[in-house]
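Usage example:
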Amino acid sequence: MFPKVGLSMVQVLEKLGHTIECPEATACCGQPAYNSGYWDEARLIAVKTLGALETAEVVVIGSGSCGAMLKVFYPELFAGTPHAEAASRLSQKCYEFSDFLVTKLGIGDVGARFPAKVTFHDGCHGLRELGTNEQPRRLLKHVRGLTLVEMKEKTCCGFGGTFATKFPMISTAMGEVRCEVAKETGAEYIVSNDSSCLMHLQGLLDRQGAPMKTIHLAEILAQT
Amino acid sequence: MNGPATEFKVRAGQLTADLRHRQIIQTALGKYETVRDRTKSSFQDWAGAREAASKIKWEAVNHLDEYLLEFVGKLEARGTKVHWASTGTQAREIILSILKDKKAKCIVKSKAMTSEEIHLNEALAHAGFEVVESDLGEFIVQLRKEVPYHIVFPAMHLVRGEISELFVRELGSAPTQSPEELTMIARRVLRQKYVNADVGFTGANFAVAETGMISITENEGNARLTAALPKTMVTLMGIEKVVPRLEDLALFLPMLATMGTGQSLTCYNSLYGGPRQPDEPDGPEEYHVILLDNRRTELLADAEQRDSLHCIRCGACLNVCPIFKNVGGHTYGTTYSGPIGSVLTPHLRGLQEWKHLSFASSLCGACTETCPVKINLHHHLLHNRRNSTRQKPGVFEKLAFRAFAAVINRPWAYALCKKAGRFLQKLHPLIKGSPLDPARSWTRTRELPPIASQTFKEYWHKRQSGLK
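Running the assembly step on the lines above writes:
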């Protein structure tokens, strides 16, 4: 859905001298099934991901939500199964993209330029499951030409996976509230480290005919 | 779909579209957050306080049998009659028999969510007793024949004008926009009720095992009058309210006030340890305490979700919950609303009938982040979801996830689906938003992103092939 995120991550990481591998056999972490209560079905997918990432030195994930699934929820999903140890090993080497750059590599400035006024939306999984809060902001503050304006509160965009279609009225109301808070900042872009939040907010903004745009953090960091 | 789930969806549909409601709740809770944060910052170490509170509650809940017996022993030694109720029905029967025994006519109540849980007011009214709620918010919702909107702020959905109209209609008072005057109107009515009441009924915020005392937190003095004036006092409490030591209140009373209302301490915090003793000048002649289980012991047996019994009913999780803020308290159709209600209700009232509340969440985790006793609220929503589908899977949904797994795990099948998706998306505008649209629940209010002409995987595959 959002190939630019992966492309931009590759661009940034290769520029920093890392070798990227991307296992072609995996396409999903299994979170939709997991969050819907179907843990057996989630395991069918997750076990494949677990195997495919076994040999990686570190796993960098461009979404706080998928990152939380691998890092926080896999150990619970596989608890008491023969894969418990593998899940625990994977958990320890998983990093959300901004967390990898800032915490693991100690980098704040990736040499990006993006002349615009932006606001940062914290995806809830990244913020509360992974504790990713300062990392993306530190990266954004180093982007040339970029002005970061904070929103008055950190609340959910209302996406929540299948929640968005099971309870569309609640999801939409939450998203509307979030869009209003974002608009109050006067920013041109909402930046996030989670494409699913951005998809939800952009879907609402487009329907409203609002000029505000959404963009993934990695896409900004890849701009020079 | 079952009854409560359908009702929830209908009410959620109405309330999320009600922009006036949204404004009232967002404004009220915005103010709450400001004062809560100010008070929270007066704690030297809030994280440490949470950790300590969680440990104390863990200790109490994991040794509930011992602490309850200690608590009861101390209470009984001072002449309190203690009753054990396994179910709400039993608790109601015990209370009714006390009232009949005392030949009571009028009962004055201070705020007690546990009494809402067992639908006490309906039962008492049905049996011919006059029941008066003395907490101002509860008094207001009782006049409106409503249940509390919120466990701490029962009437937060109402504005002054509505309360004035209600008082004009129900109490014959003169219209006013002044909160002080509105309070005085309620006070005049209530003062007479205290004098007339035969029985004073209260809940409990904490039950101190060490001293055998009930702790009640309030702001209006109504609980003190409820406890002091009538000849008989009755307290109903859930068995999980026990804390081991009196000194534990030094942490819990400010913590409850901070998270409940943003106060450092509430105006009144009182301890009750029994009926009037021979050397005491006042107090009730008779004191009854009813300990309510109502499936709490089943939750106690659930090691994964046992920490839900730590809850001190501060309401903080409701106040930060974006679901609660948008659907409001009445939409839940439960005694306890918001995140803690969505976690507890399936345990207290049936998993299949109330599981929808655990699904009606974006799992944002704001509740867990704020909970002063560190209940893992949003993960328990996931546990309830898992338990409900294990017990009774949705046949279509299970098949769909199986099919999804089969496609995702096979690159060729996934590639085929992407191609089909790109083709079908071109046709989508023909049916978009109509009842034929399979994505209607999304597209009624939101645009869908286009499926990219080249996915990252496709790019990567080409790049790797090129390198080779």
